[in-house]
Amino acid sequence: MPSAAASCPHAVHRRFLSACRPPPLPVGMPSTAASCRHVVHRRFLSAFSLRVSLCPLQARLAHVAAEAELSVPFADELPSRRAQLEALRSSEFDVLVVGGGATGAGCALDAVTRNLKTALVERNDFSSGTSSRSTKLIHGGVRYLQKAIMQLDYEQYMMVKEALHERANLLEIAPHLSAPLPIMLPVYKWWQLPYFWAGIKMYDLVAGVQCLKSSYVLSKSKALELFPMLKKDKLVGAIVYYDGQHNDARMNLAIALTAARYGAATANYTEVVHLLKTGDPNGGPDRVCGARCRDVITGEEFDVKAKCVINATGPFTDSLRRMDDQQTENICQPSAGVHIVIPGYYSPDNMGLLDPATSDGRVIFFLPWENMTIAGTTDTPTQVTAHPIPGEDDINFILTEVRNYLSPDVEVRRGDVLAAWSGIRPLVTDPSSKDTQSICRNHVVSISGSGLVTIAGGKWTTYRSMAEETLDAAVRAHGLRAEPCRTVGLVLEGGKGWSPTLYIRLVQDYGLEKEVAQHLASTYGVRAFDVAKMAQVTGQRWPIVGKRLVSEFPYIESEVIYAIKEYACTAIDVLARRTRLGFLNVQAADEALPRIVAIMGQELGWSQERRTLESARKFLYHEMGYRSRSEQLTRTSEINLDNQEVVRYKKRFHKFDKESKGFITTVDVQRVLESINVHIDENALHEILNEVDLNKNGQVEIDEFLQLMSAVKKGQVSDSRLAILMKTAEETLDERGPVTVDRSGGGV
């Protein structure tokens, strides 16, 4: 970028103000309309001019002042779930929050830190819905700012301004769970470079002193150096800007746990059956005074009494509103957003990518996350469901858009999709609206005639300010005696005392692997030491403690035990939200599942019936994309191989099928492997063959093997251990040399 341009953001501001000036009015326009038009224009520009402050040239994190110290009743140890349920039964609360997503947990934390007696109930697990299925960004919304400027929309501008403030606060209060992330916007047309640069600079300007780092322009060569997978043809350059990224489910959990530490009675798997009401002494409508709840684990029902009930149920907002008033109209129009996870080699370790205009006008993010790459999202009207399923069409749409931006040298394969999920956005709209893409994600706080407070809409980043606005409204409507909001700068669970080098102490003090220690520090913050204390000795020279659940990921067995202290009740809670294994690799999650169930069963005293794997595997199969993944290889799959390929693969197959039976078993594979000095555990070998055994008869027929190789050729399957094993074994038999067989992420 020319130095003059970089050093003169004031010029950008002046050009923006000039560009926003309305054109001359057409002859004959009524004076009232003209006057109104210019008033709106002046109001927008005046507000913009007053609120915009320049981004500092030096990269820095925004600083948010911490609030006054509060007493923390459960600083040392969280109360058990049983104790929380007993508190719900035996107390009367000032505020009962229904919904354990980001907004509901935020409301509970806001309320309890105002010295209000607070309860929080969630019918599933904390963050089990939309809040765990986001794009993992903490952002103001570049596209919303574009709409604000193009349409002179003051409301959208203020939404972006608020979100950028909340972005800074969230990065400050949970430094272990969040961090700034550079995102590259590749440019393929010369005229787009100044256009996009001006827009991104405006994003910096709106953030003002809370700008994370200043955006900058890259030449073509520098862009390819930082993002070598990028498509080179017609690339002009790129613009890099900064937003925040976080571990969304862990962040949600941190908010809920922080509320619990401050004294809020919080319980997951506690469903509202119906609302409790009492007569109004003034002769008005009956007033909401609590809720009849049911413990989903035991089936026991009980009443939770409260002066105020807050509905923060996200996509299920209208369901609770209808419990209050069956005649009420819907205020939410749900929209489904699908994301996929592909191997980490698809993107640099610390650089995201933004596709600002896909083939159908959507925005696609392509981001590094947890050593993998996440791509999404889609935006499709949907029905509200507790178990959204990612569709194959949406998965293929995302893959197609990714291919458009990556080099032809990088083959984007369907088989590389390691996990996929769908989240339902609770967009606020007129029920007659059909187009969810044009809906602004503003939020609405409403109070019914019976006193039910509803917070609906909004976005992840602004959960705290939404909670503050909701509690302000609740305090006014119900005459609650409360102190001012204290959540700005209030550090979340594990954040106080955390530093980027904390993991080194874990390695030195406990003998953990570096990768495991880094994971624990970035997941639990200072609470990582509690997890490390529970870790079992490995019996090896190194690491000294910390048995992994699966070899490829840094999750260890003691995290399962600690998850129970964090109110995990099912194996799904551990797979999806205490760890993120289910979101990163469904096959690895399936392999870890039996051990997770065994540990939880021992800790919680589960009967054999409770130890079933069925529900967790159903979750992985439907909601995490395992079904779509497994359906890439079926009994009806076409064999798309030429004659030479068929001959070559049959020859490979017959090296294992010495008796020409037409199928191979684990015995056949084991015999060949032993002949080349390779040893694989028998259970692991059964798993390897089971991935290809389509009719589940304990053997792999020649047709099944050819279907596998055809799927590998088409990119539908890319991590078949049997394909890799048989290929390397064949090569070794020809060379008579040793070979090591590990799980591979590539094809053959």
TrEMBL record:
Q: Does the keyword Calcium apply?
A: yes
- Location of this chain's protein in the cell: Mitochondrion
Q: Which domain of life is it from?
A: Eukaryota
PROSITE patterns in the record = EF_HAND_1, EF_HAND_2, FAD_G3PDH_2
Which top-level enzyme class is recorded in the Swiss-Prot or TrEMBL entry? oxidoreductase
Q: Some GO term, biological process aspect, for this entry: which one?
A: glycerol-3-phosphate metabolic process
Ranges where the EF-hand domain occurs: 644-679, 680-715
Q: What is its EC number?
A: 1.1.5.3
Report the function annotation for this chain: Calcium-responsive mitochondrial glycerol-3-phosphate dehydrogenase which seems to be a key component of the pancreatic beta-cell glucose-sensing device.
Please state what the protein is called: Glycerol-3-phosphate dehydrogenase, mitochondrial
